[in-house]
Give the backbone structure.
Amino acid sequence: MKIVTGGLVLCLLVQFPTAQTLSGREILDRVDQNRIVGQAISVTTMIIHGRSGTRTIQARAWSDGTEKAFVEYLSPAREKGKKMLKLAKQLWIYTPEPNDRIIAISGHLLRQSVMGSDLSYEDMLENDILQDQYEARVLGQETLHDRQCYLLELTARMDNIAYHSRKIWVDSERYLPLKENRYARGGKLLKTTTVHSVFQVDGHWLPKKMTFRDMLSSGGGTEYIIDSLDFKVNIPDYQFTKAALRK
């Protein structure tokens, strides 16, 4: 028994420092590997707790990596048929009758709210590889939702980024951020994200339900729920075109 116990302790002593010595860049790289997938089709629900009440919006989304995304709103009736197309850093929205028009979203319009939610159009565009955008520093470890997490501080590598710095709490086993604070250059807290439940699909740990909160708004936050997600799809190139917006 002494020999077995001693061997177990030795193994733990050997493995524990390895986990502790991961750099911020290595942790962020694992976060990127977990969050970035190929093609996928999802159905999502947004519950927006605004100043004048609560609204629920359901949408179907087609995506291909970090560069392409197409969203079609399914309900409620007043939003049904509206669509959004993302190609790299370009974004268009389509409004059906009576307007029947396509609008390019750029410049100051990117800071506007999406459907009155706590997400901006800038947030919709932010699916790039994090380690390409930010320097990461490990601040320590904390327990969040009974999960051991790395606490990382991210600082922007360039000026043209929506959030100059971030703090993220990364599940040290699943490499999924469970909480995030996003800051302006002057240090003002702009937005928070909290993950309430997770699920695993094809080896990727993803948020099942999360809440976004715009700290400059007086609303009660926006719940974002993934109702279904399918990676085993073959999406035609046509889906990611401006012509598909009017289809």
